[in-house]
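Morning!

As promised:
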Amino acid sequence: MTTNPSPQIWLYDTTLRDGTQCEGLSVSIEDKLRIAKRLDQLGIPFIEGGWPGANPKDVQFFWQLQEDPLKQAEIVAFCSTRRPNTVAASEPMLQAILTAGSHWVTIFGKSWDLHVTEGLKTTLEENLAMIRDTIEYFRSHGRRVIYDAEHWFDGYKHNRDYALQTLEAAIASGAEWLVLCDTNGGTLPHEVSESVTTVKGHLSFVLCQKSMTNDPGQRTIPQIGIHTHNDCDLAVANALAAVMAGATMVQGTINGYGERCGNANLCSLIPNLQLKMGYSCITEHQLTQLTEASRFVSEVVNLAPDEHAPFVGRSAFAHKGGVHVSAVQRNPLTYEHIQPETVGNRRRIVISEQAGLSNVLAKARTFGIELDKQTPEAKQILQRLKQLESQGYQFEAAEASFALLMYEALGARQEFFEVKGFQVHCDLVEGKETSSALATVKVAVNGQNILEAAEGNGPVAALDTALRKALVNFYPQLASFELTDYKVRILDGHAGTAAKTRALVESGNGHQRWTTIGVSANILAASYQAVVEGLEYGLLLHSQAEAAVKA
Amino acid sequence: MTTNPSPQIWLYDTTLRDGTQCEGLSVSIEDKLRIAKRLDQLGIPFIEGGWPGANPKDVQFFWQLQEDPLKQAEIVAFCSTRRPNTVAASEPMLQAILTAGSHWVTIFGKSWDLHVTEGLKTTLEENLAMIRDTIEYFRSHGRRVIYDAEHWFDGYKHNRDYALQTLEAAIASGAEWLVLCDTNGGTLPHEVSESVTTVKGHLSFVLCQKSMTNDPGQRTIPQIGIHTHNDCDLAVANALAAVMAGATMVQGTINGYGERCGNANLCSLIPNLQLKMGYSCITEHQLTQLTEASRFVSEVVNLAPDEHAPFVGRSAFAHKGGVHVSAVQRNPLTYEHIQPETVGNRRRIVISEQAGLSNVLAKARTFGIELDKQTPEAKQILQRLKQLESQGYQFEAAEASFALLMYEALGARQEFFEVKGFQVHCDLVEGKETSSALATVKVAVNGQNILEAAEGNGPVAALDTALRKALVNFYPQLASFELTDYKVRILDGHAGTAAKTRALVESGNGHQRWTTIGVSANILAASYQAVVEGLEYGLLLHSQAEAAVKA
């Protein structure tokens, strides 16, 4: 269905406008500026910055960009058509857009007759005038205009003739792009395809007529864009269907952020268009920055990244099954639909219950340990792994604990300290806001027993502090370690408070981060185990680094 | 493209097999049984239970289902073809499948020549024999067979003739379904469409030839199924494209759980097929259970539900305040692509104080409390709610705690007991498998102070026991209460062990279940608070029931 072998698709990012409608997402002006710069680096040609005038944040955002403009991208201001029965030139809302100073303006207008008569409570003719006047107003001030046909696909279904008239009004007044919007997200790919094809055909016919009558109303040859939402889990498919039917602009957001179920995800669209369908969007080098850009944006908006996101997710190229893993290593292309590096992601071998020996060997290799499949050590590691996993351990996320397990099986686990036991005492008096916890630990280092106690606002914090106090004189490097994340999961909730608990602790030393695990019916014992292994692994990393320097 | 106005699409759920390949997801046998029962209620006709023999958990799961079978659904065992150069009858792997006792067996085999020669290291002819022998073996033991053509779309691209031969082998040996699998998830909808159309055409041709020659090899007329993965963000679109090209079985998982980027999400596929495309999958009533089923499965596998999930997500029908909201309320169909109730979801009005208040009133009504919008109590409840939610409380899942909060605001919270404080002492000696915890609680009932202590294998169990011991003489009904579920979530993991903890406790009295919440930087204080409110709410229910009997 593609008519051109490798045409350009123009990307239009609306993370900073439609994306911020996402429930749970909020951004400062500073955040918006950081994201805009990153999108510019990524090679997105159109970046919709917001609706200046609708809120003060967006006004300031555009002003700041006037001071410090983007390198390549066009920043676009977004705005509706003028209100019914007004004059464009005297609408403060439209003047605020001029003040924002962008070359490009996106005007959205109504395509669906019902929204005109019931929503705007005006006539169908007045809506056409609103579209024309608003676009002409911006054109007369030298702005270039993208026209967003809101609720396009619903309007097209209910009153096709009128919907097409709204597009004609936008062309006649000088819009350079007509963007068909599936605002409610309810359209299916074959419907998108049919509608885009019809629009293309209709516009060719209209343009042909105009050129024959030499109508001065026609100023530019508009192209088609597509704006989709994910309410049917089809936002990406719908955008691709539109492109195959002739659309040349694709609107979307980073990570698919957006109202309700989100917008079309640019992190999926770009690789599909470029790697699978042969379109040109951004450079190959920019494409290798995609995974990082996705994570950067999720960091800035402070939403946890989707680990299972296509192309850019942490699990997107993770391999779990046993037989499977050895095959992947022989010939990755038979098990991966693209090379992870092309989008800046990487292959990961996951350790789990379903692991075979080859997973274990592959994982060992990432820790610099070469194991032979035939050795008793390799088999012993696998057996121990399965035994621990049946008890509720899960090493997928706790790679440091897995490394310690491997060193132990190889007889190479260095003993930095030995834990003899711990006690925790917790005291809560009703009515007092804070509760205190007191922890006592007993550890042995080089045959010397150390007893140490500490307080904390929770029992695990107290345990952690006591342990560090006991060890820091022997291992001063502990001072630079910190506990960066702590997660608890109840494994069999149905056993009530007697259920087994799994604790995951992430630690860091300023350069590296590692995760350890503990499992016990006692929530404190599970947490303590993970904390202890976190310190041990940190000491191991330090001693490996020292050995490397000496060597 | 649909040839039939409202044909049946057969749903095939693989949450319990392919879904468990999802990184971060692990389930016990008990979890699998609960999910299977729920899928059965939802009306899924085929439920793939696992690969009995590949791990002991799946063997036990099938055995338990023999004791206590599903009501409607067919449970399906999954397994590969026999290994190269063996005899099916002497393969222990295949015998384990027979022992599992399911009527239906899904056999997966290689479609891609490269996987045969490089992966299996055997000949293309031997692979065809493996498919034939394995299916014939199960057919001769009275099993019905679904054939999963692994890596179908890649195989089809690389060596179409051979790929088609593998399907012919499966048909000739008696498979009733041929399922085309996009195992690597790299295929686009138009490619799926083209391939399914070709397969349909080819099979018609082959079947026509066989019937003319009266070949006994052909036993059944196979139908086409589709199995897709979400690596291109197109799993749902690909499955729909296959259905439009003639596939009649759709494989997927609840919430799209699965390896890497997941499988096709049944929670999106079912409403698309049924509400948008006019196919028949489950009953209308079952469809209204979809949202609940989605959340149930996410609870059981203990993964946070995706709030933005199409159809079933909490944000899927969320509307922001303002003009939009009043328009939605006037004519919802112009702003929502389906009625949320058809899939058991609901419209949500976000943010506005007014909307918050009406939510509170609606919620109060579910507890039989009629509140007036204008009263200071209603406003006070809303204010308290917002304050607590900013501290990390979340009452959506803890309705019993919310009810107590309402009674308190109304001055109607009955005081059954007063907690004066608690102490916990925990002692772990390294090398001893069990750790013990000792809890002491001080409560006042009718002005009388009671001090009680108890031991447990964890601190929360000890606290729970001590509290019951202290109260049971005053409230003998406590003897019938039990703690049925306990969950802990760390709210701000990045604060390390000092992070706030949210504990949810589910309690029951044999007839009813209720959930309470606690939040604190101290994991024990949060848990204790939820346990205390759980007992209090149980006593409240008991006293309400007694009052009702007397009245």
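Chain B has 18 helices and 16 strands.

Hope this helps with the figure draft.
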